[in-house]
What does this fold into?
Amino acid sequence: MIKAIFFDIDDTLYSTTAFAEHAREAALESLRAHGVRPSLEALQRELNEVISEFSSNYNNHFDKLLLRLTKHDLPKANPAILIAAAIRAYHDAKQTHLNPFEDVPPLFQSLAKTDLIRGIITAGLQIKQAEKLLRLQLYPYVTPTAIFISDQIGISKPNPKLYLKALSDTGIAPKEAIYIGDHPLHDIDPANQVGLNTILSNRGTKYSHVEGKTKPHHTIGDFTELLTLLTTHYKIHVPQDS
It folds into this structure.
């Protein structure tokens, strides 16, 4: 009997890639509006290098970007103003571009009508991942004690201990839980290792081409398929609005 269903966040509940592209472009356009001279395309190339070198979770991307530009590229302005302008534009983009996939809210609303534990197992910085749950407006449908963020726990993907921690804290055996993620290596392989029922969400996002070392128990293209799978294979009654 399935007692819990856990979800990854990034590229599983919303398109991380699409949001990042919009938000970063807005930030760079703001820099240009404040006098930074290189073209949008040139700034994008430089910013992509910064992100590649320092990781997407680094907090000072725009600081490093400005350091890499020449004096000719920069206006006579306090760098703090330029950085703040970029950060403000990036965060403003969350209002319009940080949205769940269309089939995610109905799924979570339906799951909230069941007795299932509805959890999150995600890698990332604790405040960033928590903010995503709030901005995606999914937190009301999640079991509050079943949110596991790698930064908060001190264990990150693909370490299987992260999944074991979630199971231990919720008192659920591996075979009583389902894990849904988009990354074959970081989501599916470690979840398989600890014995979870695994479902690969393959929407054509950035890790769709990655091959895992193990196979998921199921692969879905959207959460309509997930609802069907839950009812037909796992025999879970999920009430749905007519």
Remarks:
- The CA atoms of residues 157 and 186 lie 6 Å apart.
- The chain has eleven helices and six strands.
- The chain has a mean pLDDT of 96.
